[in-house]
Specification:
The chain is an alpha/beta fold and about 260 residues long. It has 2 domains: about 150 residues, NADH:ubiquinone oxidoreductase-like, 20kDa subunit (Rossmann fold), CATH 3.40.50.700; about 90 residues, no CATH class. Helices cover about 35% and strands about 15% of the residues. The chain is globular and about 60 Å long. Bound molecules: iron/sulfur cluster (SF4) (3 copies). The site of one iron/sulfur cluster has 13 residues, from α1 and α4.
Length: about 260
């Protein structure tokens, strides 16, 4: 607890686009309420004076992409009571992890030229939970503002934040949308965790899976759907790999044959 008697919070950015942190800043209607519940002692994006810790709650955005980030996240973990990962980059690797299937050295040369010795990038970009214990995850790209507010409220009173354990299809059906699979579109709703109110299918776009895999995910069924719709092996693999940089290592994935 801070001097104010409220839980202290540190908000940290790792490799990502900072959009999830911006989403917190954009919580105009709720920010004062949140500040009434917790004491944000560290947030480089929003404060000029920042505490070196410890914190009751660490909120972490971004994936782990560099050697130096491994040390940093471990230090934050050691100095925090709870650690909450926010956004797809932190929970599943997200957009940065898409480069895991590419040649890292070739990518570095394209961006930085021949002088790449100073870079300490890792071979694979991984979610936060690959390196440290994570107490709660708020998925999405970006994480949902309202879900964040509810999570802060829950944590402040010692409860585990609620995250739905059903798929996007469930919310899509409640909204009475016509299923995009019937239009031969490669929708990932059946294997994706709900919580966005089926935002993309409701607006005519397929679910791309930004909230990560649903609990008890059935990769085999989704594989069958995509194959029957005519998706190529590469297309299916690319879509599955977005869920986690290590999806290719999942037994369920290995058993699937093209
Ligand atoms: S989850 Fe999306 S919005 Fe959040 S940091 Fe990553 S890329 Fe940006
Ligand atoms: S459109 Fe996508 S999310 Fe909606 S029911 Fe069909 S597969 Fe599920
Ligand atoms: S529908 Fe899928 S891609 Fe769109 S916001 Fe929801 S989880 Fe993310």
């Amino acid at each position: 607890m801070g001097k104010s008697g409220k839980p202290t919070v540190g908000i940290f950015g790792f490799t990502g686009c900072a959009g999830c942190q911006l989403n917190i800043l954009n919580l105009e209607d709720y920010l004062l309420d949140i500040l009434g519940l917790v004491d944000i002692t560290t947030w480089v994006m929003a404060k000029s004076e920042n505490s070196p810790g410890p914190w009751d709650i660490a909120i972490v955005e971004g994936s782990i992409a560099k050697e130096s980030e491994i040390e940093r996240i471990k230090k934050i973990r050691e100095n925090s009571g709870l650690l909450v990962a926010i956004g797809a980059c932190a929970t599943h690797g997200g957009l940065p992890a898409m480069r895991n299937v590419l040649d890292v050295e070739a990518m570095q040369e394209i961006v930085y030229g021949e002088k790449t010795e100073h870079l300490d990038v890792l071979e694979k970009i991984m979610p936060v939970s690959h390196y440290v214990k994570v107490d709660a995850e708020l998925p999405g790209c970006p994480m949902d503002k309202n879900e964040f507010v509810e999570a802060v409220k829950a944590i402040a009173i010692g409860k585990t934040p609620f995250v739905p354990n059903y798929s996007v299809c469930y919310e899509c059906k409640i909204r009475e949308n016509a299923c995009l699979i019937n239009e031969d579109k490669f929708c990932m709703g059946p294997v994706t965790q709900a919580g966005c109110d089926a935002l993309c299918p409701t607006n005519g776009a397929v679910c791309e899976g930004c909230r990560g895999p649903v609990a008890q995910v059935n990769w085999g069924a989704e594989f069958k759907i995509l194959k029957e719709l005519g998706a190529t092996p590469e297309e299916i693999k690319r879509r599955f790999l977005k869920y986690c940089p290590s999806t290719a290592e999942m037994p369920a994935f290995k058993e699937l044959t093209f």
